[in-house]
Amino acid sequence: MKASAQTTSDLGKLFVVHLSALNGDIETVQAKLLWQDIADRYNESQRAYHTLEHLAQLFAQFEQVQQYLHEPHIIALALYYHDVIYEPRHADNELQSAEYMIKKLSPYLDVEQCRRIDDLIMLTADHELDEDKDSDLDAAFLLDMDLSILGSVWSDYKRYAQAVRQEYSHVPITNYRTGRTKVLAGLLAHPRLYLTDYYFERLEAQARDNIKREISLLLC
Hints:
By secondary structure, this protein is an all-alpha fold. The chain has helices spanning about 5-20, 30-40, 50-65, 70-80, 95-105, 110-125, 135-145, 155-165, 175-190, 195-220.
């Protein structure tokens, strides 16, 4: 689904705010060009779920939890760039997105800031924190926001599942059902889907119910 003009505009204004908070010297026109580049990427034709609507859903979550974040502007930029490169046929989208972010933001952010955003984007590849990162609350919130759709009401979850299938329309239905079921079963095998207590308490039960329901439909 294509984002509305208002949604696109709101996301663009937020991008300028967050980037300018980290670099007060960046010109608004340059920040807007960076945003337009992001918007163009998220509007690519191969996307059905990983669109600007996905970004809007993430920033609705961000608004609710930003007071818990140590570096909200860094987390915001990681959200903007985490799916900036997305090709369903490729397995290295996170790496490509991280490298693209560095290319675009390194003229405006310092090395440490770019490295941090790079690390955050790469965490979205498997949605797990290493033991030495277990205390990284910002990263945990980022990953939980990215999976928050799993704990939405069933009607929203169903649209998400249908959009994912659309992105993988090149995969024969039998193969898709097998692969998707394996992915979902892997999620259910985790002791908990959500790393933060905030999301665990609010979404864990609904998310598990949704995933089980999708699996049952895939097996029909």
